[in-house]
Description:
The chain is of the alpha/beta class. It is 39% helix and 23% strand. The N and C termini lie far apart (48 Å).
Amino acid sequence: MLIRGTSLIEKGKQVQDQDILIEENRIVEIGPDLKGDDEIIDARRMLAIPGLANCHTHLAMTLFRGYADDMELMPWLEEKIWPLEAKLTAEDIHWGVKLGCLEQIRSGITCYNDMYYFMDETAKATKEMGLRAVLSGVIFDMQPQLLDDVEPFIKRWKGDELITPAVGPHAVYTCSEETLLKSLDIAEKYDVMLHIHLSETKGEVESFTKEHGKSPVEFLDSIGFLSERVTAAHCVWLSSRDIKILAERKVNVAHCSISNQKLASGIAPLDQLQKAGANICLGTDGASSNNSLNLFQEMKTATIAQKCAHSRPNLFKAEEIWKMGTTNGYKALGFDIGLRKGALADLVLIDLGKPWFCPISNVLSHLIYSMSGGVDTTIVNGKILMKGGVIPGEEEILENAQERFLDLVSR
C-alpha cells in the first residue's frame, strides 16, 4: 500500500508532499516520490497521523450512552450501572463492542485498553472490526468467579496479532488485598499488563485512608503492586507522596478528563504528575460517563481544564497533550506505533479541507483545539478499516446495537 502526497507533523510542524509505503503490517519507508506497486491512496489535502491510543475505556458500555446522566459516581454505579450490567449477555457485549469500535475508527483511535465483562466476546468483536486492543476481564470480590476466568483468557489470546490479554482488578475498594495479590501473581506469571481504577473520587480516597491508614496509592505500593506494567485510570485525588510513588514506580496514569468532570470527580493534578516524571496517557472511560469515545475531545478538554484550574494559559501546550494521546499511550500499552520506518502500520488520514483547519497556520493546534471531524481513512495493522468515511457493515452494527439496548432495559 502506498499513501501518496500526504502531510505529516514533524517536530510540531507540518511537512507536505510525503509518501508512506506500507508492506504487510509495517511502515517500510516515508519520504517524497516513493515507488509502490500495490494499492495507492491519494492523500493530497490530507494529514497523516499515527493512530490515537485510548488507554482506559469500557467499550461495551456504549450501550449505556445517555442512560444515566447527571449523577455522582457511587450513586451512578450502585443505582443505575451495576443493576443493568447484571443483565448483560455475550450478545449484548458483541454489539456494544462493535458500536464502540465503529466510533473509535471514526475518531482516529486505532488501539484501546479495555476492562469489562465477556472478554472473549470483546476480543472476537474487536478482531472482526480490525482494531488493536489490550483487554482485561474485570475482577471484583463480589463476583469471585471472575478471577477464575483470567488465566484461561490470557492463555487463549496471548500472542495474538491484535489482541493483548491483561489482568483487570477493578479497584482497591472492590478488591481485597488477597485478590490484588492474586492478580499481580497472574500478571507476573504471564508477563502481562495490570489495569486498575485508582483514586478516582475524594470520598473513595478518604474512606479507604481512614480504614487502612494509607492512601490507595500507598497501600498498593506497600503490597508491591505498582510497577511499569500497571496502567492506573483516573488518579484524581493524589497527595504529593502519592505522586512521587507513581512516578518512581513508573506507573502509567490514564487521565480521563471528560468523565472525571462530568461525574464531578475532580481535576487530576497533571502538572505535578508531569513534573514528577509520570507517564501520562489519555482515556475516554466508557460512553456511559463520557458520553463519547473521542480522544480529540479528550485532548482539548484535558488541556483547557488544566489551564483553568491553575490560572495558567501556558500550561500543557498542544505538543504535550498530543504526546499524551499518542506516544505516551503506546508506551503504556506496549505497542510499537508511530509514523516512522519499521513501526506498525496503524495510522489515520485526516481531511484538511474542513473549515476548522482553515487557515492552515498551526495544524497541531487545530488538532487539539478546533478538530470537529474529518477523519477520512483509518488503517490498523496495514489494513484499511475506513476509507473515504465509509466503514463496511456500519448500518448493521447501528441497528443491532439499538435493538440490544431496547431489549436490555426491558428485561
